[in-house]
From TrEMBL:
The keyword Signal applies. This is DUF4397 domain-containing protein. Residues 1-24 form the signal peptide. Keywords: Signal. It comes from the Bacteria. The lineage of its organism: Bacteria, Pseudomonadati, Pseudomonadota, Gammaproteobacteria, Alteromonadales. It comes from Alteromonas gilva. The keyword Signal applies.
Amino acid sequence: MKTLVHYRHIGYASLFFLITLLSACGGSDGDSSAGYDEAYLQFYNGSPNGATVYLRELDGNDLGSAQFGDSSALLSLEQGDITLEFYRLDADDQEVVIETLSVSLKTSFKTMVFLNGDFSAPEFTTQQFGRETLDNHFRLMATSVMLKETQQYDLYMSEAGDPFEAANYLGTITRGELIEYTFWDGDSDSDDFDEDEYTLYLTEPGATEVVFESPTINFNYSTEYVLVTRDISGAIQNGMIIDVVLNSSVVTAITDVNAASQYRVYNSVNATEPVTLSLTGDNDADALSVTLAPGEMTGFTEAEYGDYRLDAVIADNSLEPLKNKLITLNQSESKAIVLHEQAGALASVTFIESALSQAYDKTINLVNLVDDYSDVDFYLVRHDETIDTAQYRVKGVEYLETETLVVPADYYEIIAVHEDNNDERFLLFRLPLYGFNEESNYIVTLESAENSSGYAVKVID
């Protein structure tokens, strides 16, 4: 195992499925750095309570951006010293500089800048390694951006199908260091890893109890794989993720095959009686049940991952029950279930809630529960905007369709509009200025209502 050059600057029970890591990756025949005749730069955002971070050359070109758990695209630049400026946008779209960082780029080397720590006092760590052309092999490296600075994990790896007892110890993953590992079955031609399918395991240092097990991962690119252990953010607050960073902005998030999931339920049924919902897995005796009054939202409820049968019934039997709806709850995933009425019967619509931090940017799931129109336009209008100038909008949301919008924390009017074939607009509902200022995953619905327009926009957090 090799520690790479670095310098710091402060400012699913087991699942047998295959994850194919998608990326535009370098790699060709040969065993040297030939072909990598430029300097390479990539930024990874690992601060779980922050915002989207942008980078650029100081007083120069924009170089990309990254949300939490994502990276910028790989940049090819000239070698030499470069000063980078990192910034976010506030509610008024003004730039807020986070840090200025000088790095030295080298030909045939990849420089990675990692942002980690609490966003109020962010830490930037720069790691650098030489690139090589590889033939049917890959290189494997790992680092940590966990908030707990002292948190370390021992990394084990086994061939696909083999249990932990047959796994090979690679080394310890440590925050602030990027470690390259050596293949346990290298040969005279290469000590790099053979392209193949593998399983990753994490334990506490020196321990043998597995705290994280990956699904089968297909390492099928002849390139450098960088593993990043990080915290979970957004709707799910507990657990961890291993991000796989390659030579593009596509980052694959690997979850623990044994991690729990969670869900919450909103009752949008326009009735006077409550609705009782049940989720039943492979054991009827362990069914999860909840009763909700009209307009009520449950808190997040943790559940074992798996496939569930959803049933729902209204207390006065005024609507046909909902039976045998299939709901899948995946590991480290949060799902919202919205109960509604459809053609005289209970029905549901579900969607995955955001795993992004809600500290600065707010994720809003917009749901159209009105079947009177083929589509609805939602506008989030700030105090100095109209729907024509509103920066944040989602158009053409069809009945029972869900769309996602990410907006900066601020106050917005929410205006729901239908536009007919003659481009004439009809106001369905106008919700006065509402403050999206909490660290919440927001749901905005358009529902039928007993008012002058017949509709209402509701905000649920």
